Amino acid sequence: MGKRRLPAALPAAAARSLPEAAGTLAAAKLIPAAAPALRQDYGSRRAPHSASRLGTPPASPLSPRPPAGRRAALGLVTLLSFASRFHRLPEPPHVCWDETHFGKMGSYYINRTFFFDVHPPLGKMLIGLAGYLSGYDGTFPFQKPGDRYEQHNYMGMRGFCAFLGSCLVPFAYLTVLELSKSLPAALLTAFILIFDTGCITLSQYILLDPILMFFLMGAVLSMVKCNSCADRPFSASWWLWLSLTGVNLAGAMGVKFVGLFVVLLVGLNTINDLWDLLGNLNLSLVTFGKHFLARVLCLILLPLTLYMAMFAVHFAVLNKSGPGDGFFSSAFQSQLIGNNLHNVSIPERESYLHKDLNNLWIIKKHDSDAADLSDSSSPVEFVRHGDIIRLEHKETSRNLHSHQHEAPLTRKHFQVTGYGINGTGDSNDFWRIEVVGRRAGRLIKVLRSKIRLTHVATGCILGSSGKTLPKWGWEQVEVTCTPYVKETPNSLWNFEDHINPKLPNISLDVLKPSFVEILLESHMVMIRGNSGLKPKDNEVTSKPWHWPINYQGLRFSGVNETDYRVYLLGNPVVWWLNLFTIGLYLLIAISTAVALKRGVQLTSEHKGELSRVVLCGGGQVALGWLLHYLPFFMMGRVLYFHHYFPAMLFSSMLTGITWDTLLKFFSQFLSPSTTARRVYEGGIVALILLIVYSFYLFHPLSYGMIGPMASDPSSPMAGLRWMDSWEF
Amino acid sequence: MLGFLKNPVVVTAEINLSLVALTVMGLMSRLWGLSYPRAVVFDEVYYGQFVSLYMKRIFFVDDSGPPLGHMLLALGGYLGGFDGNFLWNRIGAEYSMNVPVCSLRFLPALAGALCIPLAYQILVELHFSHCAALGAALLILLENSLITQSRFMLLESILIFFILLAVLSYLKFYNLQRHSSFSGRWCFWLLLTGVACSCAVGVKYMGLFTYMLLLAIAGLHFWHMLGDRTLSNVGAQLLGNMGLTRGLALLVIPVAMYLSFFYVHLALLYRSGPHDQIMTSAFQASLEGGLARITQGQPLEVAYGSQITLRNVLGKPMQCWLHSHTNTYPIRYENGRGSSHQQQVTCYPFKDVNNWWIVKDPGMQQLVVSNPPRPVRHGHIVQLVHGITTRYLNTHDVAAPLSPHSQEVSCYIDYNISMPAQNLWRVVKHNILHLKLFISACYLSHCSNSESLLFTFFFQWKILTLKNEDTEHKYSSSALDWITMDTNIAYWLHPTSGAQIHLLGNVCTWASANVAAVVYTCLSLWYLIRRRRKIYDIPEDAWQLWVSAGQICVGGWVVNYLPFFLMEKTLFLYHYLPALTFQILLIPIVLQHLSDHLCRSLLSKSMFSALVVAWFSSVCFAYRTFSPVTYGEPLSVAELKDLRWKDSWNILIRKQGR
After folding, report:
1. What residues of B are in contact with residue A275 (Cβ under 8 Å)?
2. In angstroms, rounded to a whole number, what is the distance separating the alpha carbons of residues B31 and A465?
3. Angstroms from B156 CA to nearest CA on chain A
4. Does ipTM top 0.90?
């Protein structure tokens, strides 16, 4: 198949293949004499005409083997990365920061207990799996940070996270290498990430972030690799990278919803890609259609299937009732082993979050009192949509009642009370029962029907305001009658317990929701949970603008002098370099773009190459940074410092590309080529040394400090508290 | 010299009669019976308060928006001789005789009426036919919701006016660009763009969306100019000038204008009023009355022995002063934590004798001011003595009542020696004001967490019921309801008859505007993809017209609509009106395009015209049908019921026999 299509696609492919076919061949012959010394590093992209002259077959079956230097560099970088992440991994042997959540959730998987979290399940499932494989038995309670692990085996889970965290560095290295075709740029990026204290700290604990970032960088790397396979579409490696992109996207989405940003990045890249293909008139529409379908298959259908599969596994594994039940609908809960839905239990009027006998109500017709269940002669009357009913509280025999007095907390709503004696009340006790989305006269079913209770006299709707009553109300949730006739989940109720001796009992299987329903429901619950994570009043929260300037870190472990303290804070030198570079990049990109737009005569091919690296490669990375950073300014939920780390990865890649380009560009004006080379290489080495030295200064942040705080001159960190907002 | 005498003085006037007719019709539709109803209608109750405050020159801050709109409304009141004496407390309250209803409502109505000729000219400047321009103007004219919103003391019509003015001026400027750069008219329209933008932003922050859109379009046009190789021989100088003038007119002037609105606002309002407290103490002291009465004549600098009150600078959630009283902290809190059982220190939101403290030098015993007074300086270490109880402000390693991570602050009682007094404070001044000191670090070395410590004792708020009460309103709606107009707002109801006024759009126009947007998007996508494959369905200049019209109209709709999906504030149907205006402008554009490029034969053209006429008469019909609730004409119950075209509309029907 691939062979037969090849001739048709050849012209376009030939043009595209140039940067790729590059490799070792081009370096020696094609670099202009002006800068012979530089050829090895950035000369590997070459001019189009030379390719056609040489007639190099554009689609060599295997990409050229990387030179030994590059392989050694990759090995070195990987080794350093693993060493830095695994160094002192078992320390401290107690629960740190959010390990209390994710470790606990990992344990839930091992115990198969149902729980609820605002993030999709993949990350926690993997943690659970790692724990399970390494022999952790799920018995450690992970109650609060600082709890000692004692004999429990936590190293499997930490090691798994550290492993994924270590992979980020080679991924970033390969991505930058692919984008810039320059070894120094890739090395610079790798060293930035290896020696960033923040990245190390974040990779060393049982957290979702290393897993998320692994998939995220995996997706970016596969995308970039796939782009450079564009000269031989539908080849094996092309398919491999394309589908790997899809797999990684599913992984990123499956760990946290933040993965959506990388989906956006890949989506934009794909649209751009397809747009280019569409504009290529050498491609027939059929070929274009194939391209389109391939992307739909690998980037939409494949991730979607994997994503759903994750949830299927999640629900299959967690089959025991547990702490997450209350977040889900009654119908869903009925499926969990050990759930008490078939026992006496209910949701209540005074939305009491636990189930008890006071939650039971008797449904009566509004105009008669005959609802004596023991009287077997009266026929069963079914409640239908639109009926007017009265609800009598079983324990106290008072009717559910509302009137035009303001409710205790929500003063714009009406108060709801129990009224009357032994079921005798007044017309304010009448409620119209309506099923959402039904017509009049339909029957109402337990659990599955969502109903709304409209107060007949005032037209208001029974709802729970979500506010907690003070002490006198036993801190239960306020119930009000809202005069604002709108569809909100607050005003929907369903029948949970239903006791009627005249009616046959059903088995719970009748209620079983389908997988799609469960999937949708769990997403609604997660979205609601996420937007419910609002900062409390007066709580000093982290703001997105704090992040790039490394304004304030997070305490992972320990507060006092005697504690073993770990503080999540980026290596300030690295972060400030990154921040500075973003400004620098903006400047360079704008001037390059204007120069190209004005058609300034480029004096050498290098300038053209550089601008392409800056605008295309750098642009992609810069876009990634923007997509992973800007949306946080619009989020209402609580934000934390570690939310910036995905953006920080992109920012580091941008730093590598920008400085490499800049040094290359300026060194080329130096006349003797040896000086040029020395300046260029010296610059890169100086930057790397600077980073390594700063890491030497700040490494206790990641690897733990004991002893006096930095404000004390006798502390090893004395003098390093460069910002007052750092708390170490 | 005197050359002009050689030629006769000639005035040639060209009057576009259709434009004049449209303007007159617009004025009639908006201004007719303006003083009816003579009662507070909907948000007039809100804006009216501010007009009254302007009339009385009392300082206020409206946190919902900048002051230009309020000032314009107040201008109407000023011209009508309003004295500001009206209690704006209830929608539907009758206006007393001293309220010049007509002149208060005149400016918004005028702005609403002028939108009609603006719409006409925008389409002309977009190079569409006069017929299309006429259509756009008529659609705006017959849009019930815009009429309703214009006829009362509300800001939307003024906002829409400035938005359309900004768009029109930019288009005029851009069209002049081709042949007469740097001419007088060119400069005028460029300048007017900036001014109109800043006015739009000054009326409501929503204007920012259109401003951003125009900036983006201007940036795009400039970018194309950069790439215009024919200009390259003219040189970078010209381009530089172009860029500079644009930057000046579209960035610098709007910002300056915007600031000047606030300047005028502050200059007008010089009396102390209800909103003083959210401002700094220094500002409050500059207002007539209020704090100035206290600060007047008091010493500027704080010295040892001074008696002071300390106000928390942040002022959130409310302003409060450092306070102490004889009560002590409970020995045990409810959660079982212990306290020092020392005298409570709190932050108290009212002025009170217990807010007074005396600054004392730790090295001296006496509290009196020495002669000459020794001023307290940045970095000095002081003790603070509570004036009434004569105890020292103290902190120690005991957890604070609500924030266990911070230290407790108390007034030290020396009845047991077990706890050493830690009552030395370092004064760190951020700025020196008459009454205000900012104590932000305690002296003792163990006290590391100084910032949050401060927050702790300044934020002893146990009850916070102020929150979010306003997010629900009977007529609030979600952004999604707006496209289909699933919601309305009842503005006013006659106390006895069935006459009522609703914010309710012209159903026909809203539906057509949605169709137009969909058609535009689909056609554009189709053209775009076909052009990519080098298939050109329409001539290049028609394509350029189509694109530039879309940039303005679809762009305007998008930027004025989509951001509401991200907003968490209470939303109302009237927020959609600016977006709707842009969407309406799109209808004639799409119609003309369809007739020009898709109706090839004469027959289809005339059929299309017939359809358009039929459609337009249905727009007129809808206008006529809903005009009673637009103008508040009395209606019977049956007629009201007939008007309830959608179940979700809230038409107020009085119960019979009451």
Report:
1. 532
2. 44
3. 25
4. no
